[in-house]
Amino acid sequence: KFTRKGDTYLVATVEDLTGQVEVVFWPNTYRAAHEVLSEDAVLIVTGRLEVRDEAVKLTANKVAVPDLSEALGAPVVVSFAAEQCTAAAIERLKGVLANHTGVVPVHLQIVAADGGRRVYQLGDALRVERRPGLFGELKAAFGPEAVDGEVGDRVFGDERDEPSWRRRRQGSELAASG
Fold this sequence. Notes:
The protein is an alpha/beta fold. It is 27% helix and 33% strand. The strands form 2 sheets. Strands 1, 2, 3, 4 and 9 form a 5-stranded mixed sheet that branches. A 3-stranded mixed sheet has the order 5-7-8, with no helix packed on it. A hairpin with a 2-residue loop joins strand 1 (10-16) and strand 2. Helix 3 (87-98) runs antiparallel to helix 4. The protein is elongated and about 70 Å long. Mean pLDDT is 81; it is low at 161-178.
């Protein structure tokens, strides 16, 4: 849909097994999150809830795409250049992984000078918990190219995307109802 000024906004229905709710993504939030707003997407939507005559409507302020890689079983992939893959580096890798034990499998990718790649799945004793500290330690020990990807949700938009007059009105509504 379009506002009077011609800006695009979206009215969507979000549903689960317990019911459904209409969600309005005003232009600022829509612009920030439009690339992830698709049918059957798993999203975290936060905003202002309105209930009128048993009808529920949510005005979205922020949309986040949760990191489901651990739930889906995606491995952590650590990349080494072939010349970097020494016995000392492998021992250091084992030490870092031991500090973050968990259930996520770890794959070691060895990249040859000609661009060829070999991937090895490390044993169950070296499984990890996907968290920022793990990625930070791996990058500190082996360089920023050692791991591809991060842990955490991708967030689009937030309450600062709303006009200040709308934030002030919401604050007064909360004060009046609380």
